[in-house]
Amino acid sequence: MNHNINATIFAISLIALSTIFASIANAAPTSDGPRAKMHKIDVDGDGKISREEASKYKGVAKVFDRVDTNKDGYLAKDEMQLQQAKRTEIKLKAIDGNNDGRISRAEADATAPKLAKNFDKLDTNKDGFIDKQEMAAARQHRQR
Asked: Which class is domain 2-101?
């Protein structure tokens, strides 16, 4: 049970970072919210986050080296999208209590209230489960 709690806490942390990284892929910042925060981080406006820019934001700085997969000293759009895909997988595993690779309504109700609230919208094939493809599609939709 302690493993499930740790996995859930880890997933929640990654979900928060996912919101930030998803915003970088979208250029136009809004006056508030994640896009505006990313616009603030990307001080020079080049569409990528340097180590120096990230250093001013604890959460981004903490994962910088892991997300910077090509080790060029920047977080680029493709690296952030890869990180999002990994977080989606981790989130799915943390919520998927019976480890069948998909989330039932009961699993969402038990561990992910926000997901449960949007369950019907995310379950695009209406089979009563949210799978990796549906979560990825929802992530792609958010990026638009």
From this structure: mainly alpha
Listed in order, strand segments (DSSP E) in the chain are 49-50, 74-75, 102-104, 129-131
How far apart CA 33 and CA 136 sit, in angstroms, is 22
Which is it for strands 102-104 and 74-75: parallel, antiparallel or unpaired? Answer: unpaired
57-100: pLDDT as tens digits: 888 899 999 999 999 999 887 888 788 788 878 888 889 999 99
Ordered by start, the domain boundaries in the chain are 2-101
The CA distances from residue 9 to 16, 107, 124, 139, in Å, are: 11, 16, 27, 20
Count of beta carbons in the 10 Å neighbourhood of residue 49: 28
Copy the structure tokens of residue 80: 């952030």
pTM of the complete model beyond 0.85? no
- Ranges of H-type helices in 25-76: 34-41, 51-54, 58-67
